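for the recovery benchmark. tokens below, seq after
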């Protein structure tokens, strides 16, 4: 008896982070929501059963998003017209009340199965949705775990499922509740990171019928889907330079994947038409932000770069040195993930500052001895970082110099001002409040142990203001890679 097969095209994005505008790469225009919208519209016009979904983190990373506190982003997303979206950790950055207001502005469904009001257990969003298309019923379930949310959570009123095991139980409960409905295909929209997606897939009972996990949070750009427990796991990097595309033949008799093709499609002027309506919307927002953010702050001697959060960068050196000098501490540990652009300068406007460093924070100072500092960096440089996990990493101020050998797991050198740091040598370090509040999680060293050296103190209420003031009063700065952090 022949199979009953139907084609489904799943387009997916994750971690858009306000990447609204195209950029010129090798003389070609790449990315931006105008061409992304044009590509999605083209596929919807040429394929029979097309769904577009977003796996979290629509917000932050652009002055347009920051200036309008996400309302502009929702209008842009309304123009993209996704079929379903799940929540990422940065959707909570403006607070839970504002998030619920934003949800009312959205003209597309937002789902999440495990965010709730901690006082009464009421869910913030619908946990799932069934989309009927081409005679098929597609079940989408949204998942965000505590590990992903806790790093930027500012709202004590929000709770989530704590870990992967709890998330798996929630997926099981939802799938079981739809047993009476003939679900042809099941998709988990997650924002927990690629490695956690694999753990979640392994924890699911195959009889639940989960076919695909479309993930986000770790910004993983895959060459092909990962298959775990017969579940296909995909993610499409970060921003709008590419979009993920599944072309799936669904076996609607057995409710499973019969065959598929998956790829990431480059969003470029060569292949994607421009949505002029989206261009006009962007222009409206840009006129407002240009007037406010176009003023000149500084000029550098040359452009500095930040190609990866997991390495020493010239932009990281520039900012870490500026903060160290401003605060007068021995060492500045600057969160690498807070630098949101790959190139910066040489002309620096206020808008460039906002694009580059959108997460303004307080600064704490604390004292650590040499032994504690080495333990911290043993954890910071652990193998999970290089395996693709979403880990915290740091840019180092001038004076600290570390050479680490991955094969031995040992430091070949650990120097401060050119001399080895003794285990009992005390140094003062400064770090952003977000990293201070998660100190033990990010460094593996208990905060109460460190505070035996002296109580930590808040030394600055706005790291952004300090950086802006430093750059505006120090023109023609230069920064290079100086082998402050060498990984062998």
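predicted aa per position
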């Amino acid at each position: 008896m022949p199979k009953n097969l139907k084609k489904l095209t799943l387009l997916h994005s994750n971690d858009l982070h306000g990447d609204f505008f195209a950029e010129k790469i090798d003389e070609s225009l790449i990315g931006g929501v105008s061409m992304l919208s044009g590509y999605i519209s083209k596929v919807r016009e040429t394929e029979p059963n097309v769904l577009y979904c977003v796996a979290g983190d629509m917000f932050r990373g652009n002055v347009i998003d920051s200036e309008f506190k996400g309302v502009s982003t929702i209008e842009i997303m309304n123009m993209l017209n996704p079929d379903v979206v799940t929540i990422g950790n940065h959707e909570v950055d403006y607070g839970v009340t504002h998030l619920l207001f934003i949800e009312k502005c959205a003209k597309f469904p937002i789902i999440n199965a495990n965010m709730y009001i901690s006082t009464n257990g009421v869910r913030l969003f619908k946990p799932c949705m069934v989309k009927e298309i081409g005679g098929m019923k597609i079940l989408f379930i949204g998942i965000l775990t505590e590990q992903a949310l806790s790093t930027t959570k500012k709202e004590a009123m929000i709770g989530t499922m704590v870990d992967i095991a709890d998330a798996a139980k929630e997926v099981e409960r939802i799938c079981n509740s739809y047993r009476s409905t003939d679900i042809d295909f099941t998709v988990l929209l997650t924002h927990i990171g690629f490695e956690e997606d694999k753990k979640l897939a392994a924890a699911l009972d195959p009889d639940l019928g989960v076919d695909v996990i479309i993930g986000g949070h770790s910004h993983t750009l895959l060459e092909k889907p990962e298959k775990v427990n017969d579940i296909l796991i995909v993610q499409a990097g970060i921003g709008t330079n590419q979009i993920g595309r599944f072309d799936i033949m669904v076996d609607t008799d057995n409710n499973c994947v019969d065959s598929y093709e998956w790829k990431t499609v480059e969003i470029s002027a060569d292949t994607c038409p421009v949505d002029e309506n989206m261009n006009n919307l962007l222009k409206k927002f840009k006129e407002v932000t240009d007037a406010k953010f176009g003023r000149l702050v500084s000029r550098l001697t040359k452009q500095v770069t930040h190609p990866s959060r997991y390495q020493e960068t010239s932009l990281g050196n520039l900012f870490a040195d500026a903060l160290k000098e401003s605060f007068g501490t021995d060492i500045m540990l600057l969160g690498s993930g807070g630098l949101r652009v790959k190139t910066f300068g040489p002309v620096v406007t206020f808008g460039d500052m906002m694009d580059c460093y959108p997460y303004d924070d307080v600064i704490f100072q604390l004292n650590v001895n040499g032994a504690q500092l080495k333990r911290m960096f043993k954890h910071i440089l652990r193998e999970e970082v290089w395996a693709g996990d979403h880990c915290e990493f740091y840019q180092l101020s001038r004076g600290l110099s570390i050479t680490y050998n991955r094969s031995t797991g040992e430091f070949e050198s650990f120097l401060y001002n050119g001399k080895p740091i003794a285990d009992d040598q005390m140094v003062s370090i400064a770090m952003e409040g977000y990293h201070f509040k998660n100190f033990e999680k990010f460094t593996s060293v208990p905060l109460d142990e460190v505070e035996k050296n002296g109580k930590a103190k808040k030394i600055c209420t706005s790291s952004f203001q300090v950086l802006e003031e430093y750059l505006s009063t120090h023109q023609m700065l230069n920064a290079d890679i100086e082998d402050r952090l060498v990984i062998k």
